[in-house]
Amino acid sequence: MNEVRSVTGAATSAATTHRRTRITVRGMALGDFVLQNGTLLIVIAVLALIAGVFWVVLASSMPTIHQFGWQFLTNQAFDPDHNSFGVGPAIFGTIVTSVFALVFAAPLGIGAAVFLVEFCPRRARTSLAFFTDLLATVPSVVFGLWGFLVLAPWMQHSGEPWLKLHLGFLPFFVGTPRGVGLLTAGMILTVMILPLVIAIAREVMQIVPNEQREALLALGATRWEVVRYAILPFARVGITGGVILALGRALGETIAVTLVIGNQANKISPDLFATGYTLPSVIANQFGEATPGLFRSAVIEAGLILIVMTLIVNVLARLLIARMGRHHRVGGLVA
Amino acid sequence: MSLFSRARLGALALVGMTLLLAACGSSSTASSTPGGVACPSPTSLTGAGSTFDNPLFTKQFQVYPAAKCGIQVNYQSVGSGAGIAQLLAGTVDFGATDAPMKDTDLAKSTQGPILHIPVTLGAVAMTYNLAGVTKLQLTGDVIAQIFLGKITTWNDAAIAALNAGVTLPNQKITVEHRSDGSGTTGIFAAYLSAVNADWKAGPGSGTTLNWPVGVGSKGNDGVTASTKQTAGAIGYVEAGYATVNNLPVATVQNAANAYVGPTLDAIKAAADNYLAQNAASVPADLRFFIVNAPGAASYPIAGFSWVIVYQNQSDSTKGQNLANTLWWMTHDGQQYSNALNYAVLPASIATKDEAQIKKLQCGGSACYKGLFG
Question: Is the dihedral of CA B335, B337, B341, B345 positive or negative?
Fold first, then answer.
């Protein structure tokens, strides 16, 4: 403002006019007042939207909640013909595939991020980071098609027979190799959430102050020790957050999983070759045919359970991050 | 002179009006005169449901506006169950389904009775993936046992006994079924329930089943792709789909112990023979399956596809349009069936359809007042 006034007289007069006509509301400039209350309204609208969605889903699943109660969570059958509904296998499949994806994507993703941030030559870093980000923009249906047309046949003929031959003593690899099933679905999910983990871990590691690295190097630490004692403890909170976000995506992933999981409810067993079901795939498969009444209510309750599951995951993540943040403030170097 | 001409004009006008009135009068009573009814103010109709019907409907509704009064029909191919759901919700003028509505669903109607009108015929083909096997014969009982998970290998004695001279591999059978609800599943399940007691007591009949074994895929294309990818797989798809895609198809033993493939002739024969033998037992509401039909030429896994409409139409113009459209679909519209791999409706069903269409009520009188000009 001062600069403007010093440049021309016209600007000065304009500024004074503006000052004279300034309107205040409750001691606040009009612009600030509108901004503050406007943004508040937007936040309230978002909250109302979430509450509304939750309410509709809850209200629409009342018929099955009344009819089956907690049994809905364990019942094996999803059988409109006999009016018997349950999503036991789907909850199991959702958890197994998501946890599988997390177990593999977390170390892979963090490892890739460490390389990109700490070891990668500067020139290659930008293009490599670009390609890992690009992986995140591939639509899930494309992953699904690739999984169904390329990965599943390969798993059927090569991957699963190999696992059975060499690791068949484990309870995970005992069934008939079919290509589609929990294992393939878990693998597709791993590929899908990997870029998310890499991107977030990379961002978080990049903001670790260089002084941290330099301090450790000055003490004679190796590159590994720098990563171990300076980078990872500093970035831990952010990385955990990213991994949980990725888990959220894995839990809700629909079309790619539907294409490769086999959509056949089986008895709960540790066999990863078995076909399965997930909550989103139950919804995707059944909603089109769900007639009003118990059938539709069952499909919507599957959605309700999915919402509650992701809610629990998010709350746990918050608690975890809050606890880690406290520890972090106590001592930087202590892992 | 001027007076005379004015009188002549007046007389002409009078005669004209009388004629017009007469025409109107006759059109409201005589439903037997075809092509006699004036076009209504064109309105559009909306329908939703069966994906099986979609290729035929697309052709029919493309030709229909030009043929009759420019009535546009918008059809959403969303699945039979979704069609039923949308009709019940009142968001469409008609639904289309490959499995008749269940009593429990009919009871959910808030707008009075719902009519079933058969509009075309469909069948289910058994497709398989067995290297070197080009001819496969199955019975309903064996199919049921495979899909129940009781027969698990291709060289099982029960299958070998039906296929003398064919070398069946010692290979695990992978059952391929639909993961989404489907009218195709409805016909298939109705057939298995008719020929196998264990199936009837177990998975039963319906458009969505609790499958004991197998791999589920979405849509005919999903089942086909999965079957093609899996050695030793057997699946069921809509017959027209199997024909168009040149899939290997098994012949199935019918009620007369002959092995028949899902050809258009065999599907038509199934409908004709079933109706001929069971004329008395066909229910008035036309909700019936024709699976395991009698006759040596009949393909056993066949069934009708229905349009479902409310008997009481609240909008008279729309109701009249709807009645006319249905009439055309079940008569002139059938000429497009064979080219698109649908069997033509048997004449006896077309007659029964006429009775159903005439039941449509528009404000106290029948919606159908004769075919539009």
Answer: negative
At residue A4, does pLDDT exceed 60?
A: no
- Verify whether the Cβ–Cβ distance B209 to A81 is below 8 Å: yes
Average pLDDT over residues B156-164: 95
Top residue of A83, A164, A260, A289 to mutate, by most chain B CBs within 10 Å, is A289
Return the SS3 of A78: strand
| The B251-253 sheet, strands edge to edge | B137-138, B251-253, B259-260
CA distance A150 to A152: 6
A236 touches chain B (CB under 8 A): no
Chain B residues in contact with A265 (beta carbon < 8 A):
210-211
Q: Look up tokens 């359970």; give the residue.
A: A305
Contact B63, B195 (CB under 8 A): no
Question: Which CATH code of 3.30.230.10, 3.40.190.10, 3.40.50.720, 3.40.50.170 fits the domain covering B123-281?
Answer: 3.40.190.10
Task: Judge: B229–A152 Cβ closer than 8 Å, yes or no.
Answer: yes
Which residues of A are less than 8 Å from B81 in CB distance? 288-291
Predicted confidence at residue B3, as pLDDT, reads: 45
pLDDT, tens digit (0-9, with 9 covering 90-100), for A114-165: 999 888 888 888 888 888 888 888 898 999 999 999 999 999 989 998 998 8
Instruction: Please give the structure tokens belonging to residue B179.
Output: 């993961």
Of all residues in chain A, the one with the smallest CA distance to B219 is A285
A271-311 confidence digits (pLDDT tens): 889 899 999 999 998 887 787 788 889 999 999 999 999 99
Looking at the DSSP assignment, which residues form a beta bridge with residue A302? none
The pTM of this model reads: 0.81
Q: What are the structure tokens assigned to B299, written together?
A: 């393909």
DSSP lists the bridge partners of residue B120 as B305
Q: Using CA atoms, how far apart are residues B367 and B357, in angstroms rounded to an integer?
A: 8
Cβ B215–A156 below 8 Å, yes or no?
Answer: no
Cα–Cα distance, A254 to A260 (Å, whole number): 11
- Token pair of A26 as six digits: 């409750």
**Secondary structure class of B210 (helix, strand, coil):** coil
Domain B3-121+302-366 grouped into CATH 3.40.190.10:
yes
ipTM: 0.77
Partners of A297 on chain B (C-beta within 8 Å) are: none
A84 neighbourhood in chain B, CB within 8 Å = 210
Q: What is the pLDDT of residues B194-209, one digit of tens each?
A: 999 999 999 998 888 9
Give chain A's domains with CATH numbers.
71-334 (1.10.3720.10)
Residues of B with a Cβ under 8 Å from any A Cβ are 78-82, 84-85, 88-89, 104-105, 108, 172, 174, 177, 179-182, 189, 203-211, 213-218, 222, 225-226, 229-230
CB contact under 8 A, B81 and A290: yes
